Amino acid sequence: MQFTTLLTTLTLALITTANPTRPSPNTMVLNDLNNGVKCANRDGGSVNALITNFCRHNHNGDTLNGVTVGTEWARGGLRYNGMKVSITGANCPANSKWVPSEYCEGQFTWMCATGGPKGGNVARFGVNGCQTWKIEKHA
Questions:
Q1: Which of the four pLDDT bands, split at 50, 70 and 90, describes residue 2?
Q2: Of 39, 53, 54, 117, which residue has the fewest beta carbons closer than 10 angstroms?
Q3: CA quadruple 72, 77, 80, 83: dihedral positive or negative?
Q4: Whole-number CA gyration radius for the chain
Q5: What φ, ψ does residue 130 adopt, rounded to 5°?
Q6: Neighbours of 108 (CB within 10 A)
Q7: CB 36: neighbour CB atoms within 10 A?
Q8: How confident is the model over 38-72, as pLDDT tens digits?
Q9: In sequence order, what are the beta bridge partners of 132?
């Protein structure tokens, strides 16, 4: 066995055993699916629709591939059927401002699934928790 092959094998073994609780990609997809079902059961799916629209579109309805923390869109959020989603984070470093749609939807859906009766929840994400994500009631 060549030294580089041995080194690669040992490195992979170390990485794999160093984080044994990291879920597999299949588990992550299944968790997202389960969270989506739980969230839909909370309010008939209106929070799921709100999350999708917020994470994939802007106030003009233009298709986006994520949300930029610190913008008026992220701060103001989106309202639908008595609920609102938003992300604030004025003091986030540059590397913690862009949230791709997949992360936006996955994290909000997890929040909804583990939140209150209508999916309401607050969580912090980003570098040092600089982003505050909210799903809340709104008149």
A1: low
A2: 117
A3: negative
A4: 18
A5: -75, -15
A6: 29
A7: 20
A8: 998 887 789 999 999 999 987 777 888 899 999 99
A9: 88, 124
